[in-house]
Amino acid sequence: MMRLKSKLLSLNVDKEVKVKVYTPANCDEVRIPFMVDKVARVVGRLAETSPPIGQDDSRLMDGVLVQNGFKLSMMASDDLREYAGLTTTMVTCKQYITLSTASIDLIRWALESTFGLIEEINSPSSEAVKGSNGDASETQDDSVIKKGEEADEEIPSRELTTYLIMGCVFVKYNPQRREVEVEWEGNMMNDGVADAVMAVLLTVESSPAAVKRSSKNKQCHNHAPPLPSNPHSQLTPDERFMRLCMILEAQFGSEIAAIERPKLKYHGGRKERFPSAAEDASKVDTPDIDEPEDEEELREMEELELARLQSLGIPVPGIEIKVDNHVARVWLETLEVECSYPVLRDRVRVVVERAVETVADMWNTKAGSTMPVKGIPNGSNTIKTEQVV
């Protein structure tokens, strides 16, 4: 080994970069650090849309990384079966709670006090019930006609009342059995919301606020004035905006201002450029216009964009956050964060996402009336767990 080492050194003595030759002893552990670039191929739905060019976070992608041998593939969770041969499983959890004294109005009032605006989903109308009082249906089997016997008394059927809380938890109330069913898709975020919903339902009959609320409605006639609605259930866009500003101010300080001019993607066929955070703060909100004659057209486009945002319930286009010499902008429609400093941009993005996940929808006063259905690949399994309290 020593002769081999000396020979290798003599052959490489003329090189500019000195060559080092190590001769470890037998049975000694040798650790050689090296770096290998791993390349993953993007397939499926993620490959249909290319990332934006020219942004610092253009290389960031959300997906599932699958390794098959030495090949890496990144895909969406819905494409696991088609491209990776894997099946996904959706766990649907159900919880049944019996409330003997709480009414549906009290339940809704308690849920609105905790979660703000909740959505009421209309139950499907049952057309088969219209002939429930002795529907004389005739059936013919082998030339034998039988006529059903009419009922003596009709029992009124009551439909289930369904509420959707924070877009993930369904609360169904059965007035006949005085039972509440809580249903949600099992994951980390939905489990936390479901735990909070069940905590509210379990204390709705005994909490002092609920007792005070229900005692006001004990009237023997219907001439009592209606109780005022819950203030947490009908929040204006300005109130939601102020709450978001309070969360951001607690995290980044008081240097938070509203952006008055909206973000325009294109102007006159050219993409509009926004100043970077390194520029002067006085030039932050002034877009770069190549020709002065386009100022009137730009002002008209900004007025149309502001009117569109206000129709959606968004009071201002965005928020500007200044920390030291760095400036970050949050556009309220898409919750997009722009900042030249990656650390501040990621921090602001995380705070905004958690703030939106913690409260109800920021601007939509009412979501769709249908239950959200997530696509599941063919052949996937569905596991349902039920627990009765």
TrEMBL record:
Residues 125-152, 211-234, 269-290 are annotated as: Disordered. It comes from the Eukaryota. It is found in: Nucleus. Keywords: mRNA processing, Nucleus. Residues 55-362 form the Pre-mRNA 3'-end-processing endonuclease polyadenylation factor C-term domain. Residues 269-286 have a biased composition (Basic and acidic residues). This is Pre-mRNA 3'-end-processing endonuclease polyadenylation factor C-term domain-containing protein. It comes from Trichophyton rubrum (strain ATCC MYA-4607 / CBS 118892). The lineage of its organism: Eukaryota, Fungi, Dikarya, Ascomycota, Pezizomycotina.
